[in-house]
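Q: Protein A?
A:
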Amino acid sequence: MSTNLRVLKVLECEILFNFDQYSILFIHPAMILGVYWYFKFPENLYHFKFFRFFQGYGGHSDNLAELKAKVQVNTIDSFLNKLEKIKAQFPHTYLYLSINENQLIITIGDYYLFDYYFQLAAEIEDLLIEENAILLEERMSFEILSQKIYNAERKKPENTEHRFIQLTGSDFMLNNAEHLSIRIDCNLPILHKRNFINDITLICREENISIFYYQDYDFKDQCNLMLFFTNGRQYKDDIQLVHINSFGSKIRHLAQKYPFHFGHFGGMKYYPLNGPHVELMADESYILNRNK
C-alpha cells in the first residue's frame, strides 16, 4: 500500500498547530526551506568512500539522519586543525566527533540534510584521502575518550506571530529528495484571485522565496486556495534564509487590500485539489511530480 507522505506530514503539522487556540509554533527567525534528504540517500548525486548514510525514521523515533565515517588518521591534532577550517566554511551544519587517540567517528546530522551537508561530507572525504586515512570496520569496538561538538550557527527560536503558517514536508521526488515548505490555506472571492496571487508573488521575491505554486477550487463566486512556498536545492555558497515572521506579516497585510480569510470555506467537497498552478519555480524535478 502506497503512502502519501505529504498528506501525513501536513496532517501532523495541522494537529500541532490546531490542537487548541493557544498552540504555539516555535520557529527559527530565519529558516532554510527547500530540498533535503532524511528518509533516503541521494543515490545519483553523491558517492562516498568513508561516509555511510543512516536514515531518519521520524515518528516516535525522532532521530537525526546522519552521515557517519569511522576512520583512523596518522596525526590527530593536524587532522583536527584542518577539519575545523573546513567546518568553518559550513556555519549552518552540525558536526560531532568521537575520538580515541588517532581514531575517530565523524558524524554529520540533522533533521533536514540539505545539499550543503553532503558538500561538507565531500570536503571532509577529500581531506581524509589527502591524509591517507584508513576506513575502520563498523563492527570494530570503539572506546570514546573525548568528544568535540560543532553546532550550527542558528539564532534562538522565537514564537511565530502568524498561526496561519504551516510547515509541511512532501512526497519523495527526484533522487529520493523531499522538500520543506510553508503552506497557507485561505479563501476569497474569485474576482480578486488573480491580483491576489500576483501580489503574493511580489512578496515572495522580496522575502527570498524562489518557489510559489498553489492548488485551488472555484465554486460560485468564491475560491479556496492552498498556497505553497519553498526554495530549491541549498548549496554551501547559495543558502537562502527566509524570515518567517516578516513573510507572514506581509501576507497578513494583504487583508487590507483583499477580502480574504484564512482557512477553507465549506467542507471537503470544496477542498482545493486543482493544480498545481506554478507562479515561481526552481529545481522543478525536486519539487513537483508532473506524472501523478
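Q: Protein B?
A:
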Amino acid sequence: MKFINKPLPQLLVVGLTTLSFPAFSADDNLSPMVVTANRSPTANVLAPTSVITRDDIERLQIYNLPTLLSRQTGIDMVQQGGAGKLSSIFIRGTNAGHVLVLVDGVRWSSATVGTSAFQNFPVDQIERIEIVRGPRSSLYGSEAIGGVIQIFTRKGSKGENRVYGRAGYGTHNSKEVTAGVSGGTEKTIYSLNYAYQSTDGINALENNNPDKDGYRNNSLSASLQHQFSDRVSLGFSAVRAEGHNSYDGFEFSQPYHDYTDKTVQQVLAAKASYDVLSNWNMEFDLGESRDQADNFTDGTLSSVFNTRRRSAAWQNTVSIVAQQKLILGLDYYDDVVDGTTDYVVDSRDNKAAFASWQGGFGHNSFVVSARHDDNEAFGNHNTGSIDWGYQLKEALRLTASIGTGFKAPTFNDLYFPPFFGFQGNPDLKPETSRSYEIGLDGDVSWGYWAARAYENKIDDLISITTDFSTMENIDKARIRGVELELTTELLGWETSANISLLDPEDETTGKQLARRARQFANIDVHRGWGDLTTGVAIHLRGKSYNDAANTQELAGYGLVDLEANYALGKGWSLEGRIHNLFDKDYVTALDFTGVNAYQNLGATFFLAVAYRPE
C-alpha cells in the first residue's frame, strides 16, 4: 500500500476503515502511569505512548534491544549484521538521529554521530521502557523530532532481599548469564545487577571476509534510593556496559584484516525530590553519560571516539486545582568529545527553560508546552506543542496535536577536521520540524484500540554536498502516516497487534527516504496452559530502498518467532525461544557499494533456566 499526495484527513479515513488490521503494542492507556510523555507521572496521557515492562521482556524473551524496540508501534529498525552490529531506529519514518534517548532521565547518545548505540545496551539491565511518538522538543529540546525513548534501569523494592538469576545457551554458541539482588526497608531500597552476553555471530557482510563476526557484552547496574521524610527523597542509579565486537571491513579479497571495536556505554543519574508544599514538588537532577568507541585493526588501536555529556535539571510541578498541573523548569547540559580526531571545536553547552500546563474542563483535556533553548553552537531556538483530547463517550476519545521540534547539528557535521577534501560546516542551522496529528482511541470491556494519522514536515535537513566537500542544510522531508493498534483476547489468547503505514518522502527529490519501509506490522499472541505459557510473534516489513535515489530495492519479509515458558515451582522456570522459525533470508541494508548485503540471523533457538522468586 502506498500513500502518495494524500492529505491528512484522507489518511485518517483510510486508517479508520482498515482498523481490522491488528497491531502490537502495550499502549498508553493500558499503562497505569507514564512519566516521559509529560515529564511528570500521568495515568491518562494524550501523546501516543507505548510501554514495555519487565514482564513483557521476560515473556517475549527478546534480549536484543533493537529487536525489542522494532516490535513496537511506529518503530522501524535496520541492523547491519546481527548482535552488537550498528543498528538504526526510525520512529514514524524520521531519521535515526531524530529520536531522543534517555536513561533514567539522562540524555544518552554520541555527540559525534548523533545517534544512540542501542545494540550495546543490555536488555537484562532494563526494568521498563517508555516510547513517546511524535515531537517532544517543547519538553526535552534537541533530537526529539520523531519521539522519545526512555529506558528505566532495574530498581529495588521494599521487603526482604531477593536474588534472581538466568543462564542460557543457543545457536551460534550464544550464551547469556544474568544475576542480581534487590531489597530494602521502609525508607531505603537498593539493587545490584550483572549481565553477560556472548555469541560467535554470523558473517556480517556477504562477499567479504568469510569469518564469523562475534560479540560479547559485560554490564553492571546499581541503584540506591532513600526516603529521608515524607517530603524528601534522594535516589542514585548507575549502569555501565562494555562491549567487544568483531566486524567486516570493506575488503573483498585476501589478505583480510581483523577489525574489532571496544565500546563503553555508561550512565550515572542522581535525583532529589522535595515536596515544598502539599501541592508543590521540586526535583533536582544531575546526570552524566559516556559513549566510547575504540577501534582496532589486527589488534592495533586505529581510532578513538569519546563523548561525555553532563546534565542538570531543576523542575517544579504544581497542582493548581483538581486536574490542573503546571510544570516549570530549567535544563542544562554540556558535551565534550575527544579521541584521535582533532575537532576544531570539542565542547559546547545548552541552556534551556521550559513550561507545561496540563489540565482540562468538561470533556476536554489539554497539554500545552513551550521551551527555549540557548545553544553555544547555533544560538537560540524556541519550540512548542499543544495536545488536546475530547471524551466523546465513556470509552471513546478524540485526540489532536500540533508540535514543533529540532535537531542540533552533530560535532561531525559542524567541526570535523579536513579529511580527503571533506570538512565540517560550522555555519549549519538546526534541523526543524512541524507535526500534526489526529486520532481516535477506545478503552472498552473487550480491550483497547486506537487509530491515528499524522504529518511531519522537516526542513533544513543536513546532508552532504554533491561534491562531498562539506555538510549543508539542503534537504526537506514530508512524512505522512497512519498507525493502528489493537489489544484484546481471542479464544483465550491474549492478542496485541499494530500496523504502521507511511509515506516517507524526500521533498527535494520526490523519492522514498532511504531504508524506511512504507508498511510494517507486528502481531503477538500468547496463552497460559497451567504451568506452561506459549506464544507466537509475527513481524512483517514491506519493501524499502537502501539508497536515497531509490535504485537499490530491498524486498519485504515476514518473520515468525515462538516462545515458551514452563514454571517448575518455587521461582524456577524453563524458557525457550525460536527466532525466524522458517529461516527467512532477508536484508535491511547494503554496504557503500550498493551490492553487498549485511546479513541477518536465520533460524535460531535459545534455551534458558531462570530463577525469579515472587
